[in-house]
Specification:
This protein is mainly beta. The chain is built from one helix and eight strands; from the N terminus they run E-E-H-E-E-E-E-E-E.
Length: 150
């Protein structure tokens, strides 16, 4: 009998747009691993249901999900600048951390512009959450094997 783990996983980008009536009030993009685009859409809808944007008190709440193959980079990403840091989950070690933020609409740029961030942080890998839970660690240069040394 085949299990879900027997299938090869593919990389997908899923964009979830949150609507109130016909008005899109927020969008999020998730990088997902799934065996096919249908499973990627199901995973994206699960994440959307757990999102702060999924507010059931909003009138006529709905979500639109689009899934596309994640582009495979042709080259290695550029190295992090010297002194670069990243937030890391203290529970599982993932760098997939989000924080709550406030943004305002810029009419000239026609985009949301970050106004401020709040203390509440959440790990998307293990769902650890709280105020200022992340550890800040230096970003290791690509190809740096020093972490593997005893």
């Amino acid at each position: 009998m085949a299990t879900p783990h027997d299938h090869e996983c593919c990389q997908f980008l899923a964009t979830v747009c949150y609507l109130s009536g016909n008005f899109i009030y927020a969008c999020e993009t998730f990088e997902l691993e799934a065996p096919d685009p249908f499973e990627a859409e199901r995973l994206a809808r699960d994440r959307a249901a757990a999102s702060n944007f999924h507010n059931l008190r909003g009138p006529e709440l709905s979500v639109e999900v689009t899934v596309e193959d994640r582009p495979v980079p042709e080259d290695d990403p550029p190295p992090a600048p010297p002194g670069a840091v990243q937030p890391v989950c203290p529970r599982c070690g993932s760098a997939d951390i989000i924080c709550e933020a406030c943004a305002h609409w810029d009419r000239t740029m026609q985009a949301w512009v970050l106004g401020s961030t709040y203390d509440s942080e959440r790990c998307l890998a293990c769902d650890a959450q709280g105020d200022l839970i992340a550890r800040w660690e230096a970003v290791k240069p690509q190809g740096d094997m020093s972490a593997d040394l005893p």
